[in-house]
C-alpha cells in the first residue's frame, strides 16, 4: 500500500529551544506530515471511520506540541512520530518540523524523519 494522507503547513505554537530565552516564549513550528494509509478502503465506503482522520491527527498534534518541554526539534519530532504510529496505527510516516526564523529572518531550519515500513503491496 502506497497511499498517503498528508498535512502540510500545520502551525503548532510551543516553547522549544536550547537557550533560556527560548524557554520563556511561545513560537510557531510548522509541521508537514505524510502518513501511509489505505485510501481505497475509505473511498469505497465513504465513511470517516475507514479513513485516517487528518483532523483528529492535527488536533492531537496541536495538543501534544503545545505541552512540549523538550529543547531539540529532534526530540519533539521523534515523540510525535511514535505517538501517531501508536495511537492511529500508522505503519509509516514522514514528519517534518520547521522552526522558521531560528537562525535568521526568512530562513527555515528543522528536521525530517521517516519511521516505520512503507509497504508497496
Ligand atoms: N539540530 C538542531 N540544532 C539546533 C537546535 C535543534 O533543535 N536541533 N536548536 C537550536 C536553537 O534552539 C535555535 O533554534 C535557536 O537559537 C540550535 N541548533
UniProtKB/TrEMBL annotation:
Catalytic activity annotated for this protein?
7,8-dihydroneopterin = 7,8-dihydromonapterin; 7,8-dihydroneopterin = 6-hydroxymethyl-7,8-dihydropterin + glycolaldehyde
Q: Which GO terms describe its biological process?
A: folic acid biosynthetic process; tetrahydrofolate biosynthetic process
Q: In which pathway does it act?
A: Cofactor biosynthesis; tetrahydrofolate biosynthesis; 2-amino-4-hydroxy-6-hydroxymethyl-7,8-dihydropteridine diphosphate from 7,8-dihydroneopterin triphosphate: step 3/4
Q: Which keywords annotate this record?
A: Folate biosynthesis, Isomerase, Lyase
Broad class of enzyme this protein falls into:
lyase
EC numbers, comma separated:
4.1.2.25
| Dihydroneopterin aldolase/epimerase domain sequence ranges | 5-115
Cellular compartments per GO CC: cytoplasm
Can you name one GO molecular function term for this protein? dihydroneopterin aldolase activity
Concerning InterPro entries, the annotation shows: Dihydroneopterin_aldolase, FolB_dom, GTP-CH-I_C/QueF
Q: What does this protein do?
A: Catalyzes the conversion of 7,8-dihydroneopterin to 6-hydroxymethyl-7,8-dihydropterin.
Q: Which PANTHER family match?
A: DIHYDRONEOPTERIN ALDOLASE 1-RELATED
Question: Which family, according to UniProt?
Answer: Belongs to the DHNA family.
- Tell me what this protein is called: 7,8-dihydroneopterin aldolase
State the encoding gene.
folB
Amino acid at each position: 500500500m502506497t497511499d498517503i494522507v498528508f498535512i502540510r503547513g500545520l502551525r503548532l505554537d510551543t516553547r522549544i529551544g536550547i537557550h533560556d530565552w527560548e524557554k520563556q516564549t511561545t513560537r510557531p513550528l510548522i509541521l508537514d506530515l505524510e502518513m501511509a494509509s489505505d485510501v481505497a478502503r475509505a473511498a469505497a465506503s465513504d465513511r470517516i471511520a475507514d479513513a485516517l482522520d487528518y483532523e483528529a491527527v492535527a488536533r492531537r498534534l496541536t495538543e501534544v506540541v503545545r505541552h512540549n518541554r523538550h529543547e531539540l526539534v529532534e526530540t519533539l519530532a521523534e515523540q510525535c512520530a511514535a505517538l501517531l504510529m501508536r495511537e492511529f496505527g500508522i505503519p509509516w510516516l514522514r514528519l517534518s518540523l520547521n522552526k522558521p526564523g531560528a537562525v535568521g529572518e526568512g530562513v527555515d531550519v528543522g528536521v525530517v524523519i521517516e519511521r516505520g515500513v512503507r509497504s508497496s503491496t
